[in-house]
Amino acid sequence: MTALDGIPAPSTAPVDGADGSWDLTAPLREAIAEAERLIAGAPFVRTEADLLEGYDYLAGRIRMAMQTAFDYDLERPLFVNPTHQFSRQGLDNPDAIYFNAYLKEGVEYVIRGRRGTSADLSFQVMGGAYTATSAATSMLAFDDRELERDAEGRFELRYTAEPGAKTLIVREVFNDWDAEERGTLTIERVDTLGQPARPLTRALLAKKYEVAARSLTSSIQTWFAFPQFFQYKEPVNTLTTPASTPGGLASQRSSIGHYALAEDEAMIVTVPRCDDAAYQAIQIGSDWYASTDYETHQTSLTKAQAQTDPDGLMRFVVSEHPPLDGAPIANWLETTGHRTGSMMLRWQRLERDLGPDDGPQVAVVPLAEVARHLPHTAPLTPAQYAERIAARQRAVARRMIS
């Protein structure tokens, strides 16, 4: 599949309409049309289901582009949540809440918050941006263990944006979806606090629509290219030794890969449970390099959600169909119709570094033979599995913001 019929090519910059109206949205309309062509022409779109998912992905990209252009204000910074269950990108972590704030070089910021009970709260200053040809630069990365907190968990951080600093990213990561609670977080720019916002002008709005247009097509092209730098350089159906995540956090290690499984095949991923990490998890994603439905399907698991066998190992099964003689199991990762996709394991807030022995081992076997490789696993009834999914839905509703 290459392109959709009937979508006009991008034309010109915005001009006034024939009726005298301001045609400020023209760049965005043309960008949406171009984005639709990119989605329809994606090399991994093979079926109608793939294209339907692509259009859903496109809706999230449009949403993110509008948020990027209209919610951000360098004079009045705030933390925006650009990635969530309705706006998936960059193999987003189902266990994380992401907060972004734009920075201006030389300006002092005050970040205040109250630490919740999540497994990890980390901060990262990025220079530049991810594009289809380059990655952003990590300029500063640390977690809340470096902050002073009072008895109620409150903290205050002052930061003057250094040359090249563009974005502050905060990640709040949850290992136990049921027990851990969110904290609070704000950011202020010291020199503009208490001043009114800039008045709306035609030029300002035109610029915002242009920023949204550029952001939309750029984000799609970026996330088409990004996994080719990392995941898809690895042999299919393998996972790497734990290593520092490219551009990632100081206390995080990750193992990456991608899978290709027939409908009657399963991948068994065996990894030691790591009690030297506050957070440990596995997820599978789509060829759009985004998380798949982690709310109504089990496409990710943390060590708190997973079964650990008596030998200290967690054995996960990646497959389309229930893997134990047609029955689901606690450590089943559903491919939800995706014959191919990306994979990632994460360890965060580590107390020590990881080596090869901490990493995953992978085996691809016929689905009918999975039981032979799971000596400690019992099947779940449909009702038991439905309760696991219900718990995920409740947790996402309680934790996520959009």
Could you characterize the architecture of this molecule?
Helix content is 21%, strand content 27%. The chain is of the alpha+beta class and 402 residues long. It has 2 domains: 26-227, no CATH class; 231-399, Jelly Rolls, CATH 2.60.120.1600. A hairpin with an 8-residue loop joins strand 9 (243-244) and strand 10. The chain is globular.
Produce the secondary structure layout.
Layout: H1 26-40, H2 48-70, E1 96-102, E2 108-114, E3 120-127, E4 137-143, E5 154-160, E6 165-173, E7 184-189, H3 202-229, E8 238-239, E9 243-244, E10 253-260, E11 265-272, E12 277-285, E13 300-302, E14 313-319, E15 332-334, E16 340-350, E17 361-366, H4 382-399
Parallel strand pairs: 14-15
Antiparallel strand pairs: 1-6, 2-5, 2-7, 3-4, 3-6, 8-10, 9-10, 10-16, 11-14, 11-17, 12-13, 12-16
Helix pairs in contact: 1-2, 1-3, 2-3
